Each structure stands twice: as C-alpha cells, then as structure tokens.
Amino acid sequence: MIDKVAELSNAGQRVVVYAEATDADTILATLDAGAVAFLAKHELREDFVNTVLEAAQDRPYVPPAMAGAIVGDRRADRPELSEREREALLLWFQSMSRASVARRMGISQRTVDEYVRRARIKYAQAGRPAQTKSAMLARAVADGLLHPPHVGAEHEEAPDSVGQLPRPP
C-alpha cells in the first residue's frame, strides 16, 4: 500500500488513505509516502466528509486517528527551524494560501516558498522527509509547533492574534 501511495502522490494526486489499520507506524508511513490524510475506518462520518472535502481543496484536516499518530511521533531528530520558517509554516497550516501568508508576513510569496523549501530540506536532512503539506503538518505537530485542534481553524486570512510561536522542546 505504501508504494502505491508514493506512486500516486509523486504523480501529483492527493491521496487520502482509508484503512482498517490504526497503528501509528502505518499512519506515519502513509503520510511519509505522500498521503494528504489518513482516515481509519472507525472514524465518524463527519471526519470522513471533512477529510475528503479538505483534501480536495488542498487544506489540512486532522481526523482523530491521524492526530493520535502524529502527536505520538516523538522522534528526537528535530531540525532547527528559524523563527520566520516556523511562522510561515504555522500560517500555511492554518489553510492560508502562500500568497496570503506572504501578505500577512509582509514578504513576497517567493520568500514564503523559500521558507517552506528550507524547512523541507531541514526535515529531509534530519531523516524525516516531508514532501507534502500533510507530512510537514505531521512533523510540526510531532515537534510541538502546533496542536491538531488548531489546524484548519482559519481559512485564507488568519486572525491578527497568531502571536509568538512556541519553540520546540
């Protein structure tokens, strides 16, 4: 299954995995392979609908089984992200487009793209590649940058009260 997820993801498809398995290793492996979300078969209908709708819009949605897996991912190989890289990622995870992130941060979209690119490189160098937004989200949650209930709470424009980003432990 993991190979097929990677194949589809590499071909530009948004992949939502719907499976019986709920162990963290399987969930994290599918996200690492490029799935935008993992949905366990026991999830509520509401989670199923929200996951599919958000994936179709390339926005993050974290159903309970996926949240449990990424929160429990406590690997010690955290990359050192700059304050601006963390800020750009946090705003992007709040379902803002990169153009909106740029406006909010007062920088160009090219700079936002560069922050995201640098973060991806740092995660890859740490042995934790994050090729998709969902994989990057999983890394950020696992590293304590944000918590699943706060993801996807805002669309396009985040409130002015994003505030100081937490430093990873």
Automatic annotation (TrEMBL):
Residues 147-169 are annotated as: Disordered. InterPro entries: RNA_pol_sigma70_r4_t2 (IPR013249), Sig_transdc_resp-reg_C-effctor (IPR016032), Tscrpt_reg_LuxR_C (IPR000792). Residues 78-135 form the HTH luxR-type domain. This is HTH luxR-type domain-containing protein. One of its GO terms (biological process) is DNA-templated transcription initiation. GO terms for molecular function: DNA binding; sigma factor activity. It comes from Micromonospora sonchi. Belongs to the sigma-70 factor family. ECF subfamily. It holds the Pfam family Sigma70_r4_2. Keywords: DNA-binding, Sigma factor, Transcription, Transcription regulation.
